[in-house]
Amino acid sequence: MANHKSAQKRIRSNDTKRLRNKYQHKTTRNAVRKLRTLTDKTEASSFFVSVVSMLDKLAKNNVIHKNKAANLKSGLQLRINSLS
Q: 20-46 pLDDT, tens per residue?
């Protein structure tokens, strides 16, 4: 247990941030999964914009690495382009 006031505050803020990061990360993973299952190109293209935004936000806040975000976006774009 932390003895200093600042250390106690740091524990509380870390827990809050961890829960928020976990929620955002899980939501983004579910959105990526949903995008991969779509078969309609126009629907996938419109949903792709929101998924890219989510990935960029996670990368900006260091929840995921920027290269992982770039790889996911690239793979999803290739999948959308291959749809007919």
A: 999 999 999 999 999 999 999 999 999
Annotated domain spans of the chain = 41-84
Would the pTM of this model clear 0.85, i.e. be above it? yes
CB-based contacts of 53: which residues, under 8 Å, 6+ apart? none
- How many other C-beta atoms can be found within 10 angstroms of the C-beta atom of residue 84? 5
**Residue 12 corresponds to which amino acid?**
R
pLDDT of residue 1: 81
Residues making up the chain, counted from first to last:
84
The token pair at 63 is 């929840």
Distances (CA, A) of 54 to 23, 24, 38: 12, 8, 18
